[in-house]
Amino acid sequence: MKKLIGFALIFSLWMVGFASGQSDSSALNLLDDENLNQTLLESFSDSVDLEYVSTGQKEEKLKYIRKPDIFFLPTPPEVVDKMLEMAQVKKGDLVYDLGCGDGRIVIAAAKKYGCRAVGYDIDPNRVKESRENVDANNVGDLVKIEQADIFTLDLSKADVITLYLLPDLNVKLIPQLEKLKPGARIVSHDFSMEGVQPDKTETITPSDGYREHTVYLWTAPLKKELKYIREPDIFFLPTPPEVVDKMLELAQVKKSDLVYDLGCGDGRIVINAAKKYGCKAVGYDIDPKRVEESRANVDANNLANLVKIEQADVFKLDLSDANLVTLYLLPDLNVKLIPQLEKLKPGSRIVSHDFDMEGVEPDKVIKVFSKVDNRQHSVYLWTAPIKKELKYIREPDIFYLPTPPEVVDKMLEMAQVKKSDLLYDLGCGDGRIVIAAAKKVGCRAVGYDIDPNRVLKSRENVDANNVGDLVKIEQADVFELDLSDANVVTLYLLPTLNVKLIPQLEKLKPGSRIVSHDFDMRGVKPDQVISITPKNGYREHDIYLWTTPLKKE
C-alpha cells in the first residue's frame, strides 16, 4: 500500500509540472516540500530486497544506512548532456555524482568522454539499479557505484561534482566542496547553492519535456556571494607597479610562500606575486566592488589555480598560515593589526607601502620613485617575530654581568633541557643562555630584559647565530610576566629578586625546572646544588636547581 501511495504521489507531481510548464513550476516547489518528501521516503522505506546483489562490480549485501534526504527523480538525457558540457568534462577527469539515482550521469560521462566516474547513493534500491545499468552499458572498467552518505565523503579527488539535490542539501555540502582542487567544477540540476555565486547559469527545455530546467555551474574555489559587511576603513588607491615590484623583491618572495594582501583593491599585488614568483596568494577586501574587480583580474590573468580573493574584515583574520603579509593601510590600521601579526611564524615577512607601524621597529626602509604618480614612496619591511621599539620602562634591578660559557652549559645540563622544551631566561643580558639552548638542544627559547641596550645586543647576537627561528628576545619587566608556558626558567638575579619571583614560579607546570647562577631562593629547598670553576675563571660559581612544584623549606 505504501508503494502504491508513493507512485501515485510521483505521478501527481509530474502532472502538476506538466500543467504549469514553467521553470519555477509547482512541480519544483513540491519537490522542495518537506512533508511530501518525507511521505515519499516512508513509502519506499521497505521497498528494497535486502539480498546479496551480484553485479560486475562486486557482491555485497546492501543495507539501509538512514533514510534518503530526497526521493529519486530522473534527470532528462538532454539535461545530463548539458551538465557535462557546462562542466567541460574531459577524459582525464574523475566525476562524482552525489545521489546517483539510476547511474545515468556517471554512465553518460564514461560513454561520451571516456572518463572515470563514481556514483554515490544512500538508497540501496538506487545502488542496485545503478550497478545493473553500469553492467548493461559495459562501462564497469570506468564507473563504480558506491552506497554512501554523501555528507561524510571526502570529495577532494574529484574534478567534477554533479548534483540533483534540494537547495538546503547543496548548502550543507559547501564545507566539503570547499576542499576541491582549484579548477574543479560543480554542476547542479535545477537547484542553486545559497551564498555561493555561480560562474554560469543556463536553461534548457528537453525536446519531449514538460518544463524548463536550469543548470548551475560553479568552479573551485567557490566564490561566496558578496554582501555589505561595514564601511571600508580606507578608500582604494592603487599601488604603483614599481612599488609593487619593490615590495615583493624586498620581502624575498619565493615559490613556496603563501602571500596575504590585506585590502587587496584590484588584486595587483597577489596577481604579481603569483605571476612573477609562482607562489600562492590570497587577497582580502571588505568592499564587494573591490572583491569583484580583483576576481575579474585574477580570471583575466588565468591565475585561479594560485590566487584566491576573499571578502573579509581583515581585523578578524587568522594570519598564521601566511609567509608574507602585504599592506597599504593607514598607520593606525597597521597598529591595530599587531596582535594578529604577532602570531605569524618566525621568519614571515610584512611589507607596507608608505605607512609604518608605530611601536614596531622595521628591519628595513627603502625609497622607490614611481613614474606613474611622479613621487617617491617608502616601503617598510618587518620580519616575524616583530620587534617592538624599545623604550625606557624603569631602572634595571641589577647591573649586567655575563655568565661564563662553562656555567651556561652546566645550567642547561642540570635542567636536562630537551628539544621539546620552552626556556625562559629572565634578565637575558646578551642572550647567551637562550642562544646556547637553541644551538645545543634545538629548543625554543625567549630572553627577557628590561634594559633596552641588553635587548638590542641580544637580538643582534640571535641574528648573528642564525637562531631567529627558535629564539625571541623581548623587552619586559620580568615581575609582570606569566611564566606558565615555560618548561625551564634560567636566572642570574640577586637572592631578593629570586624570592620576589616565587609567586610566578609557583604557576609553572609540574616538572618544570628552574636553574639559578650563584644565588639561591630563600625559603625554597633546591633539588640540587653544584659548584663549578671555569678554566679561565677566578672564582667558584654555584648553580641551584629547583623542580616544580616548589618545596618550601
In short:
With 553 residues, the chain is of the alpha/beta class. It contains 18 helices and 25 strands.
Would you write up a description of this structure?
The chain is built from 18 helices and 25 strands. It is an alpha/beta fold and 553 residues long. It folds into 4 domains: 1-47; 49-219, Rossmann fold (3-Layer(aba) Sandwich); 241-388, Rossmann fold (3-Layer(aba) Sandwich), CATH 3.40.50.150; 405-547, Rossmann fold (3-Layer(aba) Sandwich). A hairpin with a 4-residue loop joins strand 1 and strand 2 (59-61). Mean pLDDT is 89; it is low at 1-55.
Tag the structure with descriptive keywords:
single chain, 553 residues, alpha/beta, Rossmann fold, seven-stranded mixed sheet, 25 strands, 30% helix, elongated, disordered N terminus
What is the count of helical runs?
18
Give the biggest beta sheet: 7 strands, mixed
| CATH-scheme architecture of the largest domain | 3-Layer(aba) Sandwich
General form: elongated
CATH level-3 fold name of the largest domain: Rossmann fold
CATH class of the largest domain: Alpha Beta
| Widest beta sheet: strand line-up | 5-4-3-6-7-9-8
Strand content: 15-25%
Strand tally is 25
Alpha-carbon distance between the two ends: 85 Å
